[in-house]
Amino acid sequence: MSTGTVSTGAAGTIARLNVFASTKRAKQCPTCKDRSVIVYDTHSGDEICSLCGQIIESRTMSEEQEWRSFSNDGGGGVEKSRVGGPNDTWLEDSVSGTTMMGGDKKFGRLAHAHDLATGTNSGDRQLKSAFSNLRFIGDHFGFRNNLLERCREIIKDLQTTGNLKSRTGVTNMLAVVYLAARDDADPLSLKQLTSFDRAITEKDIGKAVNKIKKLLPQNRTAGATTFASKELALRFAASLMLADCVRDLAAHMCVQSEMTKVIPVSSRPHILAGAAIFLACQLYVTQIAATDLAVTAQCGLQSLVEYYGHLLNAVKTILPKGFVPRNVGGINALVRPEHVLKRASAKPAAG
């Protein structure tokens, strides 16, 4: 488009401009005067006279409202159609954003004002601080994702019980890593963990480990009560308003999984319950997102998919006798764990 003219081209090939009437200020085209209607072209950022096509003013900032598809919230991935990153299921408000930490007293007041303005609650601030230190530790040692997910679960447990406030520092995060590695059947020594910061001794980490062990909920430790996952599966299915057939199948698979010990690592009932529900939903052709189940079970997506993989490998063992899958293709058509993660991290389609 050239200044003062509108290029229409051949009939039937007129380019459709994404424009709307500008209401910021009352303006007039110097050529058309009162007859003019000023519109805003969101593609080029120009304000244009709709009659003669003259560019009245060039702009660089869009006046459009941010487009948002609520159906894609929590789906992970980066959306070009909205401001900010994907939702964080670990936070209470499920929204990730800017965090201001450290600095002197003046900076602390600025951070406090920022939190008030953005509505960040104290629980989310504690989680963000703890996760930040955990990320540095993970980068230093090169930990696997499933170990880091277990660490986040322990941190979330501490936050839920109100015991995280004074335990977001590096020493306590090293203690969390120690406990998570032990649960993951791949223990780390205290001496190995001190290599992250030589100023922290084995004794310091050991004290933190003992304190955190006493603060963790009993049902998340290795001595969980028998068939606890069954009760959790029934509760999770009810909160998600799933059909009775899905609920009962998930509960049955939880019991069989605990009896046959299909999970090679120490069982965490809440993750087992979520994985069993995800498997049952597929067998009954019930649509549910793995990320929604992770939020309901209060666990990480990586851990949920890992447990789902174990159940999938033993699916013929844990299903009721004579059970007939409702999905097309039966057991052989169940989605693989790697595809679950791929779908969860895929970019949602804009529109």
The assigned CATH architecture of the largest domain is: Orthogonal Bundle
Placed side by side, the strands forming the largest sheet appear as 1-2-3-4
Task: Provide the CATH top-level class of the largest domain.
Answer: Mainly Alpha
Strand percentage, roughly? under 5%
How many distinct folded domains? 3
CATH topology of the largest domain: Cyclin A, domain 1
**How many beta-strand runs?**
4
Largest sheet: 4 strands, antiparallel
Q: Provide the helix percentage.
A: 40-55%
Distance between the termini: 27 Å
Q: What is the arithmetic mean of pLDDT? A: 75
CATH H level of the largest domain: which superfamily?
Cyclin-like
Low-confidence stretches: 1-17, 73-87, 219-226, 347-351
General shape: flat
